[in-house]
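Duplicate of #3305? Posting structure anyway:
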């Protein structure tokens, strides 16, 4: 018996958009079906064997009630199928209404091909996991790929390399409150914050541990998907916490991430860290930030609480919840972040790549002096803090500190962006060139 075919439904896509989608799936056994609101109901009824794993809808500028159309399509395909909308600039003001109607993610037109490709594959893999029966084997590529473009071959190779991000055996079902996606059993609550709730979970049947990050509201789904896209771009760096899969439950997208056993850097600072470990941790941290910056990823919330040190001494950077991918989106104008690790421009809603360098400078300052450059208890109202405070010279606290190390720290903490390192890569290069012994435990105090 022929297995159910996986299908992508296309609504009102242009010729160029349709060609792009077909290029992206040319190495897969997936069919694309163009439909209209008048034919979707009949298609679903006539072809129950089709496994719909993604819907892509081009918003019509002329149609006054596109939210109602989206709602109707959502009713026909069901609540679990990922739904991506392409929004012309003229309709961007209605994006929230369109998302509330049933869409999961949106792309502004004209399309940024790289950005679209990442989001497309994230939603597609999630849709495959959602719709594929447990008895069905994971999706395989075609035996022959001669007709596929070099672009699609490279893209397929990139996303198949390394980890498996979304388990093809994961069925998304309505589950009891103590289970997630009928696959992950909640073990204990790890914390909560403005984004949502974080749980330690274990995979039913294998007892593999993971971390589940559940947003407070479905309205935060876009933020979850943006975080997933960023984690997927950075997956090849060893100091990134890996994304295992993303599931949808009760209308919310939940990130299932690698569980790393070990304390946070904040906890270690309270206990005391040896000079050798400080330097080793900082080099790993700058390495991953440099890698992110080379990919035009801005983290915006680098702080000791978001850094875990594994039992083997490996640094793992967490929480890309407010990160931005500057390759396709501009920095937003919010002042989100953690006050004592934010540079002046971030308070003003003008974050840039160099903003992360400031946070690295604060951490290195703490390592060098066992004190923060300054401290303000005003996380709730970052716009009201005093941005005129000047960081004390580290050598005023520790007169034995190497002068070149002090120079590097103070350059990280320059309020004038033109005088600050422009990226983690620039900082790392100066550190290695000027202080080749950094990493041996000889330059930072106990």
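Output from current build:
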């Amino acid at each position: 018996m022929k297995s159910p075919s996986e299908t992508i439904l296309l609504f009102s896509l242009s010729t160029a958009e349709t060609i792009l989608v077909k290029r992206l799936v040319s190495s897969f056994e997936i069919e694309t079906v163009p439909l209209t609101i008048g034919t979707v109901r009949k298609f679903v009824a006539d072809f129950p064997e089709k496994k719909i794993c993604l819907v892509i809808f081009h918003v019509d500028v002329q149609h006054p009630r596109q939210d109602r159309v989206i709602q109707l399509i959502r009713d026909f395909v069901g609540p679990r199928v990922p739904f991506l909308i392409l929004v012309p600039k003229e309709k961007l003001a209605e994006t929230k209404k369109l998302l509330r109607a049933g869409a999961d993610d949106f792309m502004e037109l004209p399309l940024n091909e790289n950005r679209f490709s990442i989001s497309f594959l994230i939603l597609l893999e999630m849709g495959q996991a959602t719709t594929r029966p447990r008895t069905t084997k994971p999706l395989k590529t075609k035996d022959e790929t001669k007709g596929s473009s070099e672009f699609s071959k490279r893209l397929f190779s990139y996303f198949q390399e390394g980890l498996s991000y979304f388990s093809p055996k994961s069925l998304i079902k309505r589950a009891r409150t103590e289970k997630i996606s009928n696959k992950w059993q909640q073990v204990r609550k790890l914390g909560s914050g403005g984004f949502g709730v974080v749980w330690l979970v274990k995979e039913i049947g294998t007892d593999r541990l993971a971390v589940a990050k559940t947003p407070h509201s479905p309205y935060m789904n876009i933020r979850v998907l943006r975080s997933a896209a960023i984690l997927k771009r950075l997956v090849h760096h060893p100091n990134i916490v890996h994304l295992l899969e993303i599931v949808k439950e009760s209308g919310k997208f939940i990130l299932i991430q690698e569980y790393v056993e070990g304390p946070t850097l904040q906890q270690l600072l309270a206990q005391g860290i040896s000079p050798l470990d400080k330097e080793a941790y900082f080099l790993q941290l700058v390495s991953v930030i440099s890698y992110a910056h080379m990919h035009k990823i801005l983290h915006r919330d680098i702080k000791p609480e978001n850094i875990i040190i594994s039992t083997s001494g490996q640094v793992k950077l967490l929480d890309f919840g407010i990160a931005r991918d500057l390759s396709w989106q501009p920095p937003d104008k919010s002042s989100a972040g953690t006050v004592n690790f934010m540079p002046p421009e971030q308070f003003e809603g003008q974050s840039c790549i160099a903003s992360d360098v400031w946070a690295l400078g604060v951490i290195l300052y703490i390592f060098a002096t066992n004190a923060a450059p300054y401290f303000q208890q005003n996380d709730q109202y970052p716009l009201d803090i005093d941005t005129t405070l000047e960081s004390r010279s580290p050598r005023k606290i520790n007169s034995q500190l190497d002068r070149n190390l002090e120079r590097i720290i103070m350059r990280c903490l320059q309020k004038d962006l033109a005088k600050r390192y422009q990226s983690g890569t620039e900082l790392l290069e100066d550190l290695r060139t000027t202080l080749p012994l950094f990493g041996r435990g000889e330059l930072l105090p106990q």
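Confirmed duplicate; merging threads. DSSP finds 14 helices and 15 strands in the chain. The chain has three domains: 6-134+147-152, 179-258, 265-434.
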